Structures are given as structure tokens and as C-alpha cells.
Amino acid sequence: QVQLVESGGGLVQPGGSLRLSCTASGFTLDYYAVGWFRQAPGKEREGVAQIANSEGGSRYYADSVKGRFTISRDNAKNAVVLQMNSLKPEDPAIYYCARSESDPPLTEWDYWGQGTQVTVSS
After folding, report:
1. Rounded Cα–Cα distance for residues 38 and 53 (Å)
2. What is the gyration radius of the CA atoms in the chain, in angstroms?
3. Is 30 helix (H, G, I), strand (E, B) or coil?
4. Within a 13 Å sphere around the CA of 5, how many CA atoms are in the beta-carbon half?
5. Count of H helices and E strands in the chain?
6. Given the DSSP bridges, would you call strands 46-51 and 59-61 parallel, antiparallel or unpaired?
7. Phi, psi of 3 (to 5 degrees)
8. What confidence tens digit (pLDDT) does each residue in 45-57 have?
């Protein structure tokens, strides 16, 4: 059964860090491009970061997170990690991961996780 499961969300103070994981089952995540997205209440879903499949390995970031977030693969765990540093009050959202057989910019996201909540508050 193909499945993506996000974990690592929680409550953090402004300026703090969180490490989100997107763990796959039923397939090898390294063969796919992976994207992280977020959706805050009342807002549209937005792309946060993407990583191409292992042959390319290119990374793409939204301007709002460049220099603060890092996407990487943990192939031993069949996962993709989103390291989020210097979290800001505008970062809270439900964070989702998704996979694509095609690399950016031609991605087509066919499977999504259920999301993990990130809250930034003092």
C-alpha cells in the first residue's frame, strides 16, 4: 500500500527549529521527486520546498523560506526531511508532503500525506 506519513510537527517559539519527516511505505521514495507544502487557515496551499529524484537531486525553495528551511533525503529511513530553522510567526500551517514521478518543474503530485501541524507561538 502506497503511503506517505508526515511527522515532527509541534509547537515552537519564534526563532526556534523543527524537523519534519515524510516517511514512505509501499514504494522507494528515492525514485521520486518530493515536495513539502503548507496550508494555513483561510489561505491557499503553497509550495515550500522540493527535491528532485536522486539522479538530479536539485532543491527548490519558496522565497519565504530560503535560507531558513532545508530539504534533504534520508534514504536509510525511506524519508525526506524538512529542517526548519528560524521559524517565524507566518510559518504556522499544516505541512504536507507529496511525491511526483516527474521532476520539477514538470511535477505531478499523485500521493499526499495527511499533514502535520506546525505552530509558532511565544
Report:
1. 21
2. 13
3. helix
4. 11
5. 0, 11
6. antiparallel
7. -150, 145
8. 999 999 998 666 8
